[in-house]
C-alpha cells in the first residue's frame, strides 16, 4: 500500500479535548475523499492517501507540468514528489469547524508529527548506495535522481553546491599560489630584515603598568609572518577573487538555465501553482490581495536597526575583552604569556567570537521569525524571502562585526603615547604591530573558519546520528493490548515502515534553508576578506567535498523525508550572492588600502626611498621603510598617572607606529601623502573591479544559446500544433 503522508498523535482519553479535535480534523479530510488508515502502538499513526481526482484537477489546471517525471508504463500517474507536495498543502490548509489548521493542532499537541514516507523504491536505494556514502566522495552527483526523490528545490541546492565547489577549486589554487609566493618572501623581505636587525630601536610600552620598553627586533618572527601575508601578490589575488565571484555567478545562471530547461520549468510560475492548489483544496477560495503597510514596514525597519545595534554592541564587547585580556596577559607572571600577550588575546578573542556566533545564530533566527510574523506576508515564498533577508543581515553582522573592527579600526583609533584613547578611562585600546594589523585579521579568520568547519560539521553529523540511534532504541515497536478510547488493531505490514520513519530525525520547512545559509556565510568568508586570508578558498573547497555527502547522508539516512518543493532557481539567495560580490570588492579594496601596508610602502618607495632621484640599482627601494614609519616620543610626555614601566631607554625617547612630528605630535606631511594615496587606490580599485564585474556579466550571457533555441523551437512547435485545430473556411 502507498500512503502519501503519516500523522502521529499521542493516545488521548475518550472524550478529551485533544481527542475531539483530532477526530474533527480527520473527519474534514474524509469529507474531501481522503483514505485514512490507523495503526496503534505507543503512538497513534494515521496513514493518509488523497483521492485520484485531486491530482487530475492539478493536471488539468496546470497542463500536466510533470510529464517528464511520469512513469513510462503509467503515463497518467502523477510523480510521488508532486503527490506529496499537493497532499502536504491540503493537510496544512484544511480547516476544522473550530477554525484550526494542522499547525494549530500541532502546537496544541493534538498531533505530534506529520511527514511523508521514505519508500523502498529504486531511486532511494540508488541514492543510498551510490550518493549518501562517504566512499562516493568524488563521484558525480545524480542530480536527476535527487530531483525525482526530493524535488526540484533540493536538487537545485545540490546542483548549486556542486557547481560552487567545482569553481572553488580554481580559487583555492590561486590562493595556494599566493600563499606560496608569500612563503618565498618569509626571510627575503627587506622590511622583515630591517625589523629583525633593529636591535637598537626601543619601542614604547604596550600597556600602562608593568609593561617594559621593548626592542623591535624581538618581533622578528611576527614581522616575517606579516609580510608573508601582506605582499604584492595579495593585491593581484584580491582582484582575481572579485572577478571569480562574478564569473561564478554568471556561469551558475547558465548552468541553472540548462538544468531547469531540461526539467520543463524555465517559465514555471510559482504563484499560479499555489493558486491552483488553493482551488483544489477549496473551490470557494478567494485569493489574498497584495497589501503593503508603511506603518508595519517602519516598525519592522526600526526593530531590524535595533537588532543590528545590539549585534554591533556585542562586537564592542569582544573588543573590550581583547583590550582587558591583553592588559592582563601583559602583566602575567608567566614569561611566555607576557611576551605573546597580543597573539594570545587575538586567539582567545577569536574563540570567544565563534562561541558568540553559535549562540547568536539561535537568537537571530527567533528574532527574524518574529519580524516576519509582524509583516504578515501573503504567501509562504514571500515569508521565506523576508526571513532570508533578515537572518542573513543579522548573521552578517554577527560574523563580521568583529572582523570589521580588526580590519579597519584596530590601531587607528587608539591615540598615541601620552594621549591614548581609553575604555572607561582605564584600559587603552590595542595597537598594531609595526609591520601592520593584517596578521591579526588572518588569525581571526583562520580560527573562525577552522572552528566552523570542524566543530560545526562534526556536530551537524553526530547530533542527528546519536538522536536517531536513541529514538530507535527507545521507540521500537511494542504491542499494546489495551488502548484507551480506540479500537485495537491487528498487526499491520505498514507498521514497521511507519515506525522506522517516525524514529528518524524531524525536518521542517527551514531544514534546507539552514544548509543554504551555512554555505552563503562560508561564501562571505571566502570572498569579502580573502585578501587577508588567501587560504580561505582552500578551506572552503575541502569542507564542501565533505559537506555535499554529509547533507546527503542526513537527508537519505538520518532525517525524515523532506516535503518536495518545486523551484526553477535558488530564489532570493542569488540576490544575496550578488550583494556579497559587491561587498567583496569593497571589503578587499578597504583591506588593501587600510589594513595592509601595501600603500604606505609604495608611497615610501616612490617618494622617500633611496631610489628617488638617483638610480640605485644595488639598493632595495624599501630600505629604511621601518625607520620612516616610526615616530619618536619623549618619555617625559607620558601621562602623569602612568607607572614607570622600567628602565628608561638611552636618549629618553621611544618609538611608536605613526606619522607624527617629534615636537608637537601633529601629523607629518607623509601621513597626508599616504592618506591621499589610500583614498586614490580605494577609488581606483573599486571602480576598476566593479567595471570588470560588469564587463564579465555582459560578456557571459545568463542563458546559453542552445537553451534559447530549444525554447524557441518548443514555442514554434506548440503554436503549429494549435494551428492544426483551426480548420480553414471554404469560400
Strand order of the largest sheet: 2-3-1-4
Domains (count): 2
Our measurement of the CA-to-CA distance between the termini, rounded to an integer number of angstroms, reads: 60 Å
Per the principal axes of the C-alpha atoms, what is the gross shape?
A: elongated
Low-pLDDT residue intervals, each spanning 5 or more residues: 71-75, 477-489
Largest sheet descriptor: 4 strands, antiparallel
Structural class: mainly alpha
Q: Give the radius of gyration.
A: 32 Å
Instruction: Give the proportion of residues in helices.
Output: 55-70%
Number of helices: 24
Membrane topology: Multi-pass membrane protein
Subcellular location: Cell membrane; Membrane
Family: Belongs to the anoctamin family.
Organism: Tyrannus savana (Fork-tailed flycatcher)
Furnish the topology, listing elements before pairings.
Layout: E1 5-9, H1 17-31, E2 35-40, E3 44-49, H2 52-62, H3 80-93, H4 102-107, E4 113-115, H5 122-131, H6 143-150, H7 152-184, H8 190-197, E5 202-203, E6 214-215, H9 220-229, H10 232-262, H11 270-281, H12 294-330, H13 335-339, H14 341-375, H15 380-408, E7 415-416, E8 419-420, E9 422-423, E10 427-428, H16 438-474, H17 493-502, H18 511-527, H19 536-558, H20 573-595, H21 598-607, H22 625-629, E11 630-634, E12 653-657, H23 669-699, H24 705-723
Antiparallel strand pairs: 1-3, 1-4, 2-3, 5-6, 7-8, 9-10, 11-12
Protein name: Anoctamin
GO molecular function, one term: protein dimerization activity
Transmembrane segments: 154-183, 233-252, 298-324, 344-361, 391-410, 520-546, 567-594, 675-700
Amino acid at each position: 500500500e502507498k500512503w502519501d503522508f503519516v500523522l502521529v498523535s499521542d493516545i488521548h482519553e475518550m472524550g478529551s479535548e485533544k481527542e475531539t479535535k483530532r477526530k474533527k480534523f480527520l473527519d474534514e479530510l474524509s469529507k474531501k475523499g481522503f483514505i485514512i488508515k490507523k495503526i496503534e502502538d505507543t503512538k497513534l499513526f494515521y496513514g493518509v492517501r488523497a483521492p485520484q481526482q485531486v491530482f487530475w484537477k492539478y493536471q488539468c489546471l496546470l497542463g500536466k507540468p510533470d510529464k517528464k517525471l511520469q512513469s513510462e508504463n503509467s503515463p497518467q500517474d502523477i510523480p510521488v514528489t508532486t503527490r506529496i507536495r499537493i497532499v502536504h498543502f491540503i493537510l496544512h490548509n484544511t480547516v476544522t469547524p473550530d477554525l484550526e489548521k494542522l499547525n494549530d493542532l500541532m502546537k496544541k499537541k493534538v498531533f505530534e508529527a506529520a511527514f511523508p514516507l521514505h519508500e523502498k523504491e529504486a531511486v532511494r536505494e540508488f541514492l543510498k548506495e551510490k550518493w549518501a556514502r562517504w566512499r562516493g566522495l568524488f563521484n558525480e552527483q545524480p542530480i536527476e535522481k535527487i530531483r525525482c526523490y526530493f524535488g526540484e528545490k533540493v536538487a537545485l541546492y545540490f546542483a548549486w553546491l556542486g557547481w560552487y565547489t567545482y569553481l572553488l577549486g580554481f580559487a583555492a589554487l590561486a590562493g595556494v599560489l599566493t600563499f606560496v609566493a608569500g612563503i618565498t618572501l618569509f626571510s627575503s623581505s627587506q622590511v622583515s630584515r630591517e625589523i629583525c636587525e633593529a636591535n637598537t630601536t626601543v619601542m614604547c610600552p604596550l600597556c600602562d603598568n608593568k609593561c617594559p620598553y621593548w626592542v623591535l627586533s624581538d618581533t622578528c618572527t611576527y614581522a616575517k609572518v606579516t609580510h608573508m601575508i601582506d605582499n604584492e601578490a595579495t593585491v593581484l589575488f584580491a582582484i582575481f577573487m572579485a572577478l571569480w565571484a562574478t564569473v561564478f555567478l554568471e556561469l551558475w545562471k547558465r548552468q541553472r538555465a540548462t538544468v531547469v530547461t531540461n526539467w520543463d520549468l524555465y517559465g514555471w510560475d510559482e504563484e499560479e501553482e499555489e493558486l491552483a492548489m488553493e482551488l483544489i483544496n477549496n473551490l470557494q477560495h478567494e485569493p489574498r490581495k497584495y497589501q503593503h503597510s508603511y506603518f508595519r514596514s517602519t516598525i519592522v525597519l526600526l526593530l531590524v536597526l535595533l537588532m543590528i545595534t545590539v549585534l554591533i554592541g556585542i562586537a564592542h564587547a569582544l573588543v573590550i575583552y581583547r583590550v582587558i585580556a591583553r592588559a592582563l596577559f601583559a602583566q602575567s607572571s608567566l614569561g611566555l604569556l607576557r611576551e605573546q600577550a597580543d597573539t594570545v588575546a587575538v586567539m582567545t578573542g577569536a574563540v570567544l567570537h565563534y562561541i558568540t556566533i553559535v549562540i547568536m545564530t539561535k537568537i537571530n533566527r527567533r528574532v527574524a521569525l518574529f519580524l516576519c510574523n509582524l509583516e504578515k506576508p501573503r504567501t509562504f515564498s514571500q515569508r521565506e524571502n523576508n526571513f532570508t533577508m533578515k537572518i542573513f543581515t543579522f548573521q552578517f553582522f554577527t560574523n563580521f562585526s568583529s572582523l570589521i573592527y580588526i580590519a579597519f579600526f584596530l590601531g587607528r583609533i587608539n591615540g598615541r603615547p601620552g594621549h591614548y584613547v581609553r575604555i572607561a578611562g582605564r584600559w587603552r585600546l590595542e595597537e598594531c604591530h609595526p609591520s601592520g594589523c593584517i596578521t591579526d585579521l588572518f588569525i581571526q579568520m583562520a580560527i573562525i573558519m577552522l572552528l566552523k568547519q570542524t566543530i560545526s560539521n562534526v556536530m551537524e553529523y553526530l547530533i542527528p546520528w546519536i538522536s536517531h540511534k536513541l529514538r530507535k532504541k527507545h521507540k521500537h515497536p511494542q504491542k499494546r493490548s489495551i488502548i484507551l478510547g480506540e479500537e485495537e488493531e491487528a498487526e499491520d505490514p505498514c507498521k514497521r515502515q511507519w515506525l522506522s520513519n517516525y524514529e528518524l530525525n524531524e525536518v521542517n520547512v527551514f531544514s534546507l534553508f539552514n544548509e543554504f545559509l551555512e554555505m552563503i556565510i562560508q561564501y562571505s568568508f571566502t570572498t569579502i576578506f580573502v585578501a587577508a586570508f588567501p587560504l580561505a578558498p582552500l578551506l572552503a573547497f575541502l569542507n564542501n567535498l565533505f559537506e555535499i555527502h554529509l547533507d546527503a547522508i542526513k537527508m537519505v539516512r538520518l532525517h525524515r523525508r523532506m516535503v518536495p518543493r518545486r523551484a526553477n532557481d535558488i530564489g532570493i539567495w542569488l540576490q544575496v550572492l550578488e550583494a556579497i560580490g559587491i561587498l567583496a570588492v569593497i571589503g578587499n579594496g578597504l583591506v588593501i588600502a587600510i589594513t595592509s601596508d601595501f600603500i604606505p610602502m609604495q608611497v615610501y618607495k616612490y617618494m622617500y626611498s633611496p631610489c628617488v632621484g638617483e638610480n640605485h640599482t644595488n639598493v632595495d627601494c624599501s630600505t629604511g621603510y621601518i625607520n620612516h614609519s616610526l615616530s619618536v616620543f619623549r618619555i617625559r610626555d607620558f601621562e602623569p598617572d602612568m607607572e614607570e614601566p622600567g628602565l628608561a631607554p638611552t636618549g629618553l625617547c621611544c618609538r611608536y607606529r605613526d606619522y607624527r612630528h617629534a615636537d608637537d605630535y601633529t601629523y607629518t606631511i607623509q601621513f597626508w601623502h599616504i592618506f591621499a594615496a589610500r583614498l586614490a587606490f580605494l577609488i581606483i580599485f573599486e571602480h576598476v573591479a566593479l567595471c570588470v564585474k560588469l564587463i564579465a556579466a555582459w560578456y557571459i550571457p545568463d542563458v546559453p544559446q542552445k537553451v534559447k533555441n530549444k525554447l524557441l523551437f518548443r514555442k514554434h512547435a506548440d503554436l503549429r500544433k494549435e494551428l492544426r485545430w483551426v480548420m480553414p473556411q471554404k469560400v
